[in-house]
Amino acid sequence: MKASLELLASLIGGALGLGALVWWAVRCLRRAEDPVRLLVKWAVTIIAVAGVWWLAWHLQGGLGAVAVVLIGAVVGVLLSTLWAPHLGALLAKPFTALYDGGDVEPEPQPFYSIALAKRKSGKPLEAVYEIRRQIERFPEDVTGQMLLAEILAEDLNDLSGAQVVIERFIQQPGHQPSDVAAALNRLADWQWKLGQDPEAACATLERIRTLFPDTPMAAQAAQRIAHLSGSQPVLQAAADPRRIPVQPGVPNLGLLDNTAALRPAEPDPAKLAEEYVRHLQVHPADTETREKLAWIYAHHYRRLDLAQDQLEQLIQMPHQPPRLVARWLHLLADFQIAVGRDLQAASATLQRIIQMFPDTGLAAQAQQRLTTLSLELKGQEPAQRPVPLGTYEQNLGLKTAWRQVQRQAEQAAPPSQPSLTPSDRAGAWQTDQSQTLTDGFGPWSRTPSGR
Fold this sequence. Notes:
about 450 residues, about 0% strand, Serine Threonine Protein Phosphatase 5, Tetratricopeptide repeat, mainly alpha
C-alpha cells in the first residue's frame, strides 16, 4: 500500500512538472521573436546534454572519464555561446522593463487612422467600411460610433443613418452620462444645421433633460433650447436669402461738419426689456437673456434693485459652472459701484465669491479686486465743476501799449509844446501802429529814402 502511494505521488509530481515545463515552453514560444529558431536551439541543447550524459554513463573510469570531462567542457562552451543572448536579456530585463513595459501585453484598442485617411482623401464610403470593421471588434467604443455618425451626417448627408447610430449608442449599457449627453448634443446640432429642423433639435435636447434631470447636462440643454426655439426665421433667411437694396452713399462725406445724423439708430432699451421679459416667461433658464435684462435695469433705468434681483436668480440657479457664478457676482459688484455707489455692498458681494469658492483662482481674483475697489468708486465719481474765471478788464494788452506810446511822446515833445490830450495821444499811437503794419519791419527799420 505504501509503495502504491509513493508511485502515485511520483506520477502526480512528474505530471505537474511536465505540465509546468510545457506551459513554460508554450509561453516562451509565444513571446519569442523567432519561435522556429528557439525550437532549434532547444533541440540542439537536448541532444548535446543527452549525448554527454550517455557518454558519462558508458565511459566510466580511466581515459573514458577524462574524455567525458573534455567533451562536457566543449559542449558547455558551445551551449553558452548559443544561449548567451537569452541569458543577457534575462539579466537586463528588470531594468529595460522600466522603459519599454517589459512583457506586459498592450491593451487592445481600435485604430481609426486608416478611416481618417480615407475620409480626408474624399472616400467616405471606404472610411465607413473601415470604421465598421473596428466596431465589430469593439462594439461599445465611443469614438468609433461618434466618428461613424459624423461621417454619415456631414460627408454622406445621411442624417437618418447618423440618428440610427446615435440611438444604438444610447441604448448600449455602461456608457458615461457625459458621453450620452454629448452624443445627443451632436445629433441636435445636425438636426438644426443640416436638417433645418429646430423642433427636432429641441426634442433631442429635451431627452437630455429627461434622462439626466437636475444635472449640469440638463441645465446646458435648457439653455440651448431657449436659443433654438426662435431660430426658425434665421434658418429660413439662410435657406432663401433676400436681396437687400443698397442705398446710395452720402456725397462729400468728408466735408460734413457733423456726422452724428449718419449714425445708425440705437436700439430702444425699453423695447429690448419688454422682449427679454416675454422671452424669460417662456424660457426662465436662459441665463444670457437674464443677464442682458439686468444690464438694462442697471444702466438705463438706474434700478439697482431690479438688476440685483435678476442677477441673484442667476446665482441661485442649480448646476451652474463656478466661473459663471463668479462672473455674475463681479457684475453685481460693478452695478453696486456704478449705480448704487455703495462700497460696503460691493465688498460684501466680492466676499461671497471668496466664501463660495475658497482656495481657487476665483477667490484670489476677488481678493485682488477688493484691494482696488475704492479706486473704482473714485473713478465713478462725477467730475468736479470747473472753477469759473473772474471778470477782468477788457483790452488789457492794448492799454499797456497805449501807456508805452504816451511815455515816448512825452519824452520827444519840446518843453514849450503843450501836452497832448488823451485823444491826440491815441491818434498818434494808431498812426504809429498803422505805419508799423504797413512797413512790416517796425517804426525804426525805415531808411532815409523811405524804403
